[in-house]
Amino acid sequence: MAARTVRTRDWRQRSRIRRRREAVAAYGFLAPWLIGFVLFSAFPFFYSMYLSVCEVRFTITGVQTRFIGAANFVRALVGEGQLDFVPALLEFGGMALVYTPLILVFSLVLAMLLKQRIRAKGLFRAIYFIPVIILSGPLFNEMSNNGSLHIAGISDLVFLRMVAAVSPDLMRLLLYLFNNIIVIFWFSGVQIVIFLNALQKIDHSLYEASGIDGATAWQTFWMITLPIIRPMTVLVSVYSIVQLGAFSSNAVSQIIRANLFALNIGAGYGYSAALSWIFFLLMLALIGLFFGLLRSKEKGPDAGGEAVFRVRRTGGTKR
């Protein structure tokens, strides 16, 4: 009995030593990322929060900060910022509310088409991803200035004229969609890849089961495909909002950069930090809105089984 107790104690001690070595090795591999995150992400994040409530001046002795409370935020929202920053902020909010659903639908449709068994499928996938590789602010601005981002003569189509005779509002909506289709396509490359990856991971047996029950393609999409990939729709919406906000040609970003090195009184790092935080809160609100609208209300891991059950419950069988 004593020998067994000694062996058990030795085994536990060796096990603790092994776990400690594994933990040290894990932290060693994580150390470069942790150091980079603290230095280049966490510290600038909280330091910008501090600068947003200060007046920042550069002198020959170094950087001088003076606490001024919410003065930078007041100036941005009800002061001089009403002339440029607030309109740009509202414009971005409206653009995000319109572009994000369009990018969501457009990328999902293209992902479903690219998932089909067609010839040169890899070539088409590469073509749709090329804009992500060459996407840049100067190139985008140059194309916008040359009118290359809009389809010329689209308003002269007979179809749109017929729609305008019935509903002018619907015609304006379609015209806006066609005029911005290139921009939507430009921002949909990564989203297509995300949806394509999600669609390829759906168990094919679920489609076979729904086919046996007589479900149509429309019912299969709404009852099986969409509920399963719903978490990816949340991810795509969040990514799209961040992508639109981080784009260098964004008017809000241009105003923030312009005030960063401005020489007029009251501008500078402190005011730019306040503008950045207001912009960040707006993006956070938009992300929360789309997260609340798109998040899955289903509970439980068996999403596929629930989806097939919904097909049967809605009368998909023809037998």
Describe the overall structure.
- The structure is a single chain.
- A two-stranded antiparallel ribbon has the order 1-2.
- It folds into two domains: 1-51; 73-135 and 187-313, MetI-like (MetI-like fold, Orthogonal Bundle), CATH 1.10.3720.10.
- It starts with a helix and ends in a 6-residue tail after the last helix.
- Helix 3 (81-114) runs antiparallel to helix 11 (217-246), helix 4 (121-134) packs antiparallel against helix 9 and helix 11 runs antiparallel to helix 13.
- It has helices at residues 2-51, 71-78, 81-114, 121-134, 137-145, 158-166, 168-179, 181-186, 189-200, 204-212, 217-246, 251-260, 269-294, 303-313; strands spanning 54-59, 62-67.
- It is flat, with a radius of gyration of 27 Å.
- It has 319 residues and is mainly alpha-helical.
- Helix content is 75%, strand content 4%.
Write the SSE topology.
Elements: H1 2-51, E1 54-59, E2 62-67, H2 71-78, H3 81-114, H4 121-134, H5 137-145, H6 158-166, H7 168-179, H8 181-186, H9 189-200, H10 204-212, H11 217-246, H12 251-260, H13 269-294, H14 303-313
Antiparallel strand pairs: 1-2
Helix pairs in contact: 1-13, 2-3, 2-13, 3-9, 3-11, 3-13, 4-9, 6-7, 9-11, 11-13, 11-14, 12-13
Secondary structure: helix percent: over 70%
Radius of gyration: 27 Å
- What's the end-to-end separation, in Å? 70 Å
- Name the poorly predicted regions: none
- Number of helical runs? 14
Relative strand content: under 5%
The description of the largest β-sheet is: 2 strands, antiparallel
- CATH second-level architecture of the largest domain: Orthogonal Bundle
Shape: flat
H/E element sequence:
HEEHHHHHHHHHHHHH
Question: Would you tell me the overall average pLDDT?
Answer: 79
Per the CATH scheme, the topology name of the largest domain is MetI-like fold
How many distinct beta strands? 2
CATH superfamily of the largest domain: MetI-like
**Tally of individual domains:** 2
